[in-house]
Structure formats: structure tokens, C-alpha cells
Amino acid sequence: MRSRFMTGTAPMTLSVAPRKQLLDTRLEVSGGQRLAGELRVSGAKNSALVLMAACLLTRDTLRLRNVPPLTDITAMGEILAALGVRVTRSGDTIDLDGESITRAAPPYELVNSLRASFFCIGPLLARMGTAQVPLPGGCQIGSRPVVEHVKGLKALGAQVTIEHGVVTASVPGRGHRLTGGHIHLDCPSVGATETLMMAAALADGETIIDNAALEPEVIDLAGLLTAMGARVQGAGTPTITIDGVQELHAADYAVIPDRIEAGTFLLAAAITRSSLTVGPVIPEHLGAVLTKLEEAGCLLHQDGTDLHISASEIRALDLRTMPFPGFPTDLQAPFMSLLATANGTSLVVENIFENRLQHVAELQRMGASIRMQGNTACIEGVARLSGAPVHGTDLRASAAMVLAGLAAEGVTTVRGLEFLDRGYAHLEDKLNAVGARIRRLGDPA
Ligand code: UD1
After folding, report:
1. Cα(350)–Cα(374) distance, rounded to whole angstroms?
2. Nearest CA-CA partner of 98 in 6, 230, 217, 175
3. How far apart are CA 37 and CA 141, in angstroms?
4. Helix (H, G, I), strand (E, B) or coil at 245
5. How far is the CA of 332 from the centre of ligand 1 (A)?
6. 139: annotated active-site residue
7. Of 160, 17, 49, 12, nearest to 423 (Cα)?
8. Segment-wise mean pLDDT, segments of 10 residues, the chain, 445 residues
């Protein structure tokens, strides 16, 4: 019988932009400017990354629109190309032609640069019956285990071993097809839910995922899979049911707007006590964030897919990060920059990742008054932050530094742009267009 895993030479047609080599690249933020105007939100990075991996489920071409121009997207394109996918990018549209997958093992050097590359394991296993993916390992914000992903794949009939840092998975038996199963996630992991949805889409029979993540990116993936011919129900609720189909087909699909970028822009207005219009947004994706902004004293007004925000006095408040629909961990650092300038004392509790408060030390360098105990930060608002050289220790911490710089007296030099550029498309250009004064220095031309 012909193996589902074909060998051969990978068609490496890859027209994604090359990643820039980063030297001492930094942003110089001259603080104290009022902002005014309109900020446009790009497609969601976290959705786009998983939707790209879904191309491995079909021999047809997947067209994704509203894909943000980010280094993480380029990295994912390179990983898919290494597996044999033809990747063609034009503006914010990306075509992924997975007709001839030639490898089921993305190379470590590429995977190592992008945790989200672990998403490949589900679709590879479902289509090829085999996958070898290096463990993504930890990152700046925590250990990032994949126990739930592996447990779920086993429940779908995969044999999985982890040796020498590589997860090797295969489906035994005739046809090498996964079989539907009942999966209960111990925690509602976004990545595990997405991996298992993709795996189950091509499994024989029905799969039920209980305690599934509720995040909008999960619903977006369900939307794409459905457009490709999958049968998915319940995405956005704790129980997702997937009725496996024999094969999936081509689709043309637009990525949802990035709720974290939108939240960052709203916070840019708040921290500079300005008025801005931010769009497009899906307000339900930002529920907890909008509630907290209102609690802080911001005025919000929805106009179709645009949100108008206006800020003057900012009140202190307490917030704790939670899985969706709770307050997103990805906006905890940016919101803390705002609270550092609020009237009164705020408490911020990080419940999702164990090491996601490293920005506290950097904010303190800018004059913020913050005390830490475990995963809790107690922030006493100060009248004014002062510009300083700071380092963004992860993607969202870098954004928090830029926001703090917008409000600070003098110049803030933000390093750590290799993180920032992973998740924010042309951040300084967008902010400068509404009145910020940010210069990028040290970038190789
Ligand atoms: C995704 C997002 C990330 C966001 C996070 C939480 C992408 C590419 N990244 O990451 O930006 O901050 O959701 O909203 O979409 N956990 C386990 N065991 C597992 C898996 C996870 O204990 O097997 C724990 C993690 O340690 C963490 C929590 O679950 O404490 C949430 O992790 P998860 O939802 O899996 O986050 P990611 O999918 O990695």
C-alpha cells in the first residue's frame, strides 16, 4: 500500500519577505504628544498562524486574506515551504498550495524560531499519518507545555513518543487515519484546542473536545475549517464537536481583526489622554478590555466596526488575567503601563503565564511605582513617567514599553524589537500617523 507520506523534492517557491537581520534596532519614543485620528487594525497574528497551518489539511490551495505583515508570519511561511507547501504572498493575501507535501518533519532551526510551528503536528498527522515536530520548548513568558495537545492526539489514535526533544507521532493501521474520540482538556488551552480541531477534521468519525478554549481565534479556525468542508460545531463554547470528513478542499478566507493590536491602540489613546478611532474591531472580542477601560474612566463609543475612545483622567483599578472571555494575558503588560499613570493604586494578577511580569522592572526604570508579590503587581499611579532606555522582554512587554514611552517625559529608547516586530505591523508608522513621535534606529536598510 502506498504510504500517505510521500517523499521527493520540496517545491520551495517562497515569495514571503525575508526576515530582517536585527542589529541594535531600537525605537526612540519622544513622549508627551497628544494623539488624534484613526488607527487601522491588521489581521490577527494568532489566528493567521493557525489558519496557515490548516493548509496542510488539503491538496487544494488555501487563500488567506487580511494576513498581517509580521516576522512570525514570514517564519510560518518558511516552515510550511520546508514541508513542501508553495507559499505565495502578495500584500495581505497569502496563497498556500499544499498539493505536494514532501516532509512531515519541519526542521528544528525553523521551528525553534516560532512556537506556533507546533500547530503543524495536528494537520500533518491527520493528512500524512505521521509527523515529527520538535518540542516548542519554553519562552520568555513561561514553560508553555504541550501535554494537552499530545494527550488529545493519543485519544484520536495516534502513537506519540517524545525523545531527544522531538515529538514523533504516527497513526497505526490501514489507511493511517486518525479515529474520532472524546477528549477532555485539563485546561482550556488555545493551542491544544486548535491542534485537536485540525487533527479531528480528517479523522474517521466524531470527535468531542470538552473544556475547549473559547477564544475568538478558535472560532476563526472553525470558520476556516468549515469553509474547507469540515463539519465543526460548538466553537466558542466549551464543547466542540467535529464530524470527520474524507478530505477538505480549497477556501478563500479572511482573518479576523487582531483584538490584541486593537486593545494596544485603545491603550495608546488612554495613556496619552487622547481621543482616537480604532477599527476594524469585533467589540465582543474585546469585552473584558472595554469594560476595564470604561472602569478606568475612558469614554467608548461604537460605530459599526470602529471604536471611538476618549480619555482624560484615568482611575486605578484591579484586573486579573483569565482565559477568554476574561481579561487577556496578552494585554496585561500594556494595561499595566496605563495603570502606572492612573490616579490611585491598582492590582494586577497574572494567572495564565508564570513569568509574564518582567516588564515591571522596566516600568520601574521609567519611574513607575510598582511592588511585586508572586504573580501580583501593586501599582501606585504616578503623575508622570520619565523616559529611559528600556528593553521589551517579550512581545507584549515591548508594546507596553512603547505605550509607557508615549506618556513619559523625555525620550524612551525601546530595545527588544525582535519581539515587537513579531506581533505588531508597522507599529511606529501607525502611531506616528496619529501624532506620536517615534523613530526606528539601527535598522539595516
Ligand atoms: C495562545 C496565544 C498566546 C496567548 C495564549 C493565552 C497563539 C499563537 N498564542 O498561546 O498569545 O497568550 O494563547 O491566551 O495563539 N497549558 C498547560 N498544558 C498544556 C497547554 C497549556 O498547562 O498542554 C497552560 C499554559 O501553561 C498556560 C495556559 O495553559 O498557563 C494557557 O496556554 P495556552 O492556551 O495553550 O496558550 P497558547 O496556545 O500557547
Report:
1. 9
2. 6
3. 33
4. coil
5. 15
6. yes
7. 49
8. 34 42 82 97 97 98 97 94 96 96 88 87 96 80 86 97 93 92 97 98 98 98 98 98 98 98 98 98 97 98 97 97 98 98 98 92 98 97 97 94 98 94 94 98 73
Return the ∠ at Cα 141 (arms to 136 and 146), rounded to 5°: 35
- Which of 71, 119, 144, 396 to mutate for ligand 1's pocket (most ligand atoms within 8 Å of CB)? 144
Question: Which amino acid, one-letter code, is at 139?
Answer: C
> Does ligand 1 lie within 6 Å of residue 147's CB atom?
yes
- Global confidence as pTM: 0.94
Phi-psi region of 236 (alpha: psi -120 to 50; beta: other; left: phi over 0): left
Pick from 11, 39, 10: nearest CA to 270 = 39
User: Cα–chain-centroid distance for residue 184?
Assistant: 24
- Please count the residues of the chain: 445
Alpha carbon distance 61, 118 (integer Å)? 21
Neighbours of 278 (CB within 10 A): 26
What single letter denotes the amino acid at residue 391?
H
Is the minimum distance from the CB of 138 to ligand 1 under 6 angstroms?
A: no
Q: In what order do the strands lie in the sheet with 318-320?
A: 318-320, 345-349, 376-380, 369-373
Dihedral over Cα of 339, 322, 260, 142: its sign: positive
Q: How many CB atoms lie within 10 A of CB 138?
A: 13
| Residue bearing the CA closest to ligand 1, atom 13 | 190
Cβ burial of 222 (10 Å; 0-12, 13-18, 19+) is: buried
| Crossing angle of the two packed helices 259-271 and 395-407, in degrees rounded to 10 | 20
Match 488575567 to its residue by C-alpha cell. 321
User: Could you tell me the distance, in angstroms and rounded to a whole number, from the CA of residue 186 to the centre of ligand 1?
Assistant: 12
